[in-house]
Amino acid sequence: MHSTVSGKSGTWRNWAGNVTARPARQVAPASVEELSATVRKAAEDGLRVKAVGTGHSFTAAAATDGVLIRPHLLTGIRRIDREGGTVTVEAGTPLKRLNLALAREGLSLTNMGDIMEQTVSGATSTGTHGTGRDSASIAAQIKGLEMVTADGSVLSCSAKENPEVFAAARVGMGALGVISAITFAVEPMFLLSAREEPMTFDEVTGSFDELFAENEHFEFYWFPHTGNCNTKRNNRSAGPERPVGTVRGLYEDEFLSNGVFQAVNYVGRALPASIPSIARLSSRALSARTYTDIPYKVFTSPRRVRFTEMEYAVPRAALVGTLRELKAMIDRSPLRISFPVEVRTAPEDDITLSTASGRDSAYIAVHMFRGTPYQAYFSAAERIFTAHGGRPHWGKVHTRDAEYLAGVYPRFGEFTRLRDRLDPERRFGNDYLRRVLGE
Questions:
Q1: Is this model's pTM higher than 0.85 or not?
Q2: 302 has pLDDT over 80
Q3: pLDDT tops 80 at residue 383
Q4: I want to staple 292 with a disulfide (CB 3.0 to 4.6 A). Which of 51, 242, 272, 339 is the partner?
């Protein structure tokens, strides 16, 4: 699941296998002091520096030919403040470890994405999110950050301390410095009741506003080449806990969502013409179910089928129109799409380059099975998303550049000015950041 160092060449690969890098050296600092020393040493050697998480980004956001910082020794909980409702964790801590540790302490994040393999700093720096009517991305739950800047000094920021850095660095793509620790808001453990049920495309799009308004967390998947969707509503519950039964869980989450899904994708890759019939079958395989459990067991699920993904945030009011255009485009094209299209929402937040910055947003994610050519599908989808002022997820495939992004992010210049101040020599730069942030 995690990125690997292969052989002596030290080639780094991301999870999807679509990005590789050959850093001059790889370092695994075990403390913020070692991290500072690593950054200073890189500067002396004239090398650029990037920290990498578990490689779950589909973009080259973490790729470098300089010093690659591996996070696996910067992990664990530094402190829990029950009074203040916060937990401070080392930046390389995987979300999975954070969720398990918090659960043992009777605590939880308010909202999370649908997988928990990523490190806390990798997930937040790229704007990873779940779905929520009132609760936003993982980065929006950050209360404080500790970061090593280009001169090796350690900078702390929060709403009160260095607030302009705090506004930008929560979703900073590693452009402003290397995060060493994050303080999250947490709350006492609660239960969520999930209701999953099939609905038609027309039903979901026709009543989207109600479904959104009536549920704390609403999301749905549409299966291309069909009129079928699978919806999921998560709402807080007084209990009792009613987890998914082991047998049914194994069948639906492992067998259908991972095992069979992997197999049908191999078939679809070999025989694209079979995809519409497969899609009709898979979209009907999942039946309605309801279960109640602690948050991370409801929000997240294993994703073992590897894929490539593009995701755009559009204004929430533009969601239904955008989705209908996407469906019309697929229906009249020769494209054969075996992965469902995922739709989620987030309320506006105050983070400079968050995909939900200053506007209530809806997310549309398109996926292709790994190894299947995705360019034709993604570029056709991207034309539709950008026509609605879409903002690409920073960690997923897109072709946008600084000129476009400056037009869809009102605070874009605020971020680049801060970067000029904190990293004038572009110690933390790479090709991806040059493209999306400009020189």
A1: yes
A2: no
A3: yes
A4: 242
